[in-house]
């Protein structure tokens, strides 16, 4: 009992997040393991209904994410730094790209590099087309599924997290992305629910990837003769080794293990890609890469908005691929977004979006072209369609593909190594992210927590793999993508609200009363600055300072033959000087008592005296041409006169220019 209390005292776990999440994770695992067929059937029906009837939600959500990020790149907000204005990036550009890439795509590149293009190429849905058209479309659809749209999903979550964490100094947690809407409620139950969702989604996503990926790794090890069969015992050994290394990497920290393995992974992947390019149909591959990019750009808008509503025969393929991919990327967004945000401090918004959208997309296009087009080329020429016949055995397809190249043993061994390291990098970053969510971004957590998540991942992945429940878990993960897409749209809204406030705060100028102030009577001004005025206080200022100033100025105007009048209203105070004209718009300089809401944080701040309630009042100017006014609460009587003359001089200067007549000349309609 004492030992249990000691462990509890040392943990950084937040009970409101961890306890509900573990109960849900264990319950789903239990049901999926003991009733795999029933669960798979029921969840499959729910997924099919969503994909059939609500596929347009996925299409429009992903489309909005793409154009939202592109708009930010070219907006004035693009130069905002994810952190303090003088923040510097924590990682080198290569390390940063390597880590976000390994977390974002990981094992999928190896699993689908050959399998997806061959699947599209041989799909009966496109059987009416000739081989060339099917090969080009196979490349196009693969580009579409692995391109900008996928990374835009990750980018929205990653950018929102990085912005609110490093700019607003909030925890690195999904709840922080909703701060403009929830305010302090993010620290309560609403925030816990959001983080529970993120934790479960991350856990299920990594578990299913680990389980299915082990099958491919097992197939590769059988191919090179290291293992004799695809038995469950071998899969236990693979999972155990992967999770031990992943846990060691996670406990060593991002700066060491995760960073090193990510760089090693990318370097190894590039080596294999270059090998296939050089020994494969090199000229053909380089030519199809150029054509493929052009075809993708030409079809970009058609692909983006297409729901196949006019082509019901192709809709099953559309649901099975495009909608499933969008759901899968969205379900992975909490995990990948959290990790990307963790490593992106110090980058500007423009740099973040450009790098996240363009660089991984360009690499994916090159990778999928070299592997995918080599596969379709072989299938059309040397292989005689044998690769197309293996689409139902995707875990073996990559290794069967490598059989057609020289040094098969070496290339297969390298592929196995890359798959292995991809697993480790996905798992170690996943362990790191899950602990981060569970501890609500605690500064330091005991290492046993990271070991706990690694062990739980390994155990449940093996249980589900043995019981046949991984498919159910994957299906449920895809279903949860629908509500999370709505949450992501809220992230976009909140991010815009945060950026607007940020821009206003950073560019807020000084009060007009400071423009020509010499510092005279500074004690009196200090008294005014630290006091929050009541309505009666401002009314008094306007009647005792503003009204006499305007009356004095009006008398001077009239003495020079310019008819000027002053209108005064006491409750609420409103004083205005007006000079009427026949052909020009009237000149008006007015001041009225204006109420403004004070931040609740300032109201509760004990080191600022004089705050009573959440309302303060200021004497605010207004003008005849409906321009925005400003606060003149610190003006003396002479300064009010000077300000009116400044505005009147501006009025005359603008009225003297013919190009401004649309604003200054009285039209018939306005006169009526």
From TrEMBL:
This is BCCT family transporter. It is found in: Cell membrane. Its main location: membrane. It comes from the Bacteria. The chain crosses the membrane at residues 12-35, 55-73, 93-114, 143-166, 193-212, 232-250, 270-297, 317-340, 352-371, 410-438, 450-470, 476-496. It is a multi-pass membrane protein. Keywords: Cell membrane, Membrane, Transmembrane, Transmembrane helix, Transport. NCBIfam families: bcct. It holds the Pfam family BCCT. InterPro entries: BCCT_transptr (IPR000060). The lineage of its organism: Bacteria, Pseudomonadati, Bacteroidota, Cytophagia, Cytophagales. Belongs to the BCCT transporter (TC 2.A.15) family.
